[in-house]
Amino acid sequence: MGKGCIAVTKYFLFLFNLLFFIFGALIMGFGLWVLFDNQSFIAVLHESSDTVKVASYILIGVGSLSMAMGFFGCIGAIYEIRCLLGLYFTCLLLILIAQVTAGVLIYFQRDRLKYEMSNIIKGMIVNYTGQNRTTEHTWDYIQRTMKCCGWNSPGNWTENIIIKNSTQNLYSCSCRNETRPGTDLKDVGLCIHMSAELPIYEMGCISSVEKWLLDNCGVILGICVGVAVVELLGMILSMCLCKSVVQEDYTKVPKY
């Protein structure tokens, strides 16, 4: 391979590693968002299931590893260190295999995940108290902003322990349909209505939440595909550059 081709390959590999570093930062940032967010549907699942927390830790780990690999790939490309380029190729291959395996598992377990999510939400509605709990207030926020009530339908709230054992006409305040007559306009907790016809939304939240998840899955899928493309290009360029380097020259390694 000519010196011009080597130089082009080297700087292209540096560019792809820079992109790989950025994509890794995005994945890690998404994992941190999943772990610490308390204003979206993800927060509802945190307290009832460890699956989301485990997934967030995996995303943070993969993102951190991707950033590290991008950094070392940049060094290996600029200084033409064969051992770093070989290590970089091997790690990229392992990461790509792990990503494909995880994607296949999630695809074939999607019905089970949907069933688990439904049980989590229904269980949260049954035990809802309206106290200062992140999951409950997040669910109130979802019902209020998506203009829905309950999971499958408002009938899910009839299973709530407090509502079931009360002699008053109670309903979730966040289900309040402002277009209907009434006095209570609270954001969280349980409200009292004088008549049996409650001023609430009639549509369940499952359709809106599924749409929200699908929209976010598209973003996640786009990021993962982008990362996979960068990984494949990085593997190809690293092998081309590694083959072009005739011998090791450790004097090129920067001294600190």
UniProtKB/TrEMBL annotation:
Query: SUPFAM superfamilies annotated for this entry?
Result: Tetraspanin (SSF48652)
Q: Where in the cell is it found?
A: Membrane
> Which cellular component appears as one GO term in the record?
plasma membrane
Signal peptide range equals: none
Coiled-coil intervals in this record?
none
| Superkingdom, natural source | Eukaryota
CDD domains given for it? Answer: CD37_CD82_like_LEL (cd03160)
Going by the UniProt record, its keywords in alphabetical order are: Membrane, Transmembrane, Transmembrane helix
Query: Which residues span the membrane?
Result: 12-36, 56-79, 86-108, 219-242
Membrane topology term reads:
Multi-pass membrane protein
| Sequence similarity | Belongs to the tetraspanin (TM4SF) family.
What is the protein named?
Tetraspanin
Native species: Collichthys lucidus (Big head croaker)
Task: Identify the taxonomic lineage of the organism of origin.
Answer: Eukaryota, Metazoa, Chordata, Craniata, Vertebrata
